[in-house]
Specification:
By secondary structure, the chain is an alpha+beta fold. It contains 3 helices and 7 strands. Strands 1, 2, 3, 4, 5, 6 and 7 form a 7-stranded antiparallel sheet that branches. It starts with 14 loop residues before the first strand and ends in a 10-residue tail after the last helix. The model has no long low-confidence stretch (mean pLDDT about 90).
Length: about 120
């Protein structure tokens, strides 16, 4: 696949357009896997959390504004949908990389998707 941006390897915290689902549809995703995995030539997949255009703030959902993501509208990351994605389904980088504090919030959100003892405090 000459000329594809995937050759530059995705990095943790980056937003990418990707083909997900069956049949594949273009969708925005956040790369959450560690960069050691992302740049490995022996591993052909990355861990992603998909964005959605609708949702609500909750223990496993995080609303992000366009100013933070670079995407055209508010978007919702849904940690309960974390999955692996073949690197060849990544199309191109989109938007902005998320800050380290937002990535910590994403990691906590993903943890809450499988750990009933993970702390969560809803905003008042």
């Amino acid at each position: 696949m000459p000329g594809r941006e995937v050759a530059l390897f995705p990095r943790r915290g980056e937003i990418w357009a990707a083909n997900i689902g069956d049949p594949p549809r273009r969708h925005w995703v956040l790369i959450v896997s560690l960069d050691a995995r992302n740049k490995s030539e022996r591993v052909n997949s990355v861990l992603i959390v998909p964005f959605g255009s609708a949702g609500y703030d909750g223990p496993t959902t995080l609303r992000l504004e366009p100013g933070e993501t670079g995407l055209p509208a508010p978007s919702y990351l849904k940690g309960h949908f974390i999955t692996t994605l073949a690197k060849d389904r990544l199309l191109r980088r989109e938007g902005r990389s998320l800050s380290s504090s937002t990535m910590r919030a994403v990691s906590e959100m993903v943890r809450r998707a499988f750990d009933p003892d993970a702390p969560y405090q809803a905003e008042a």
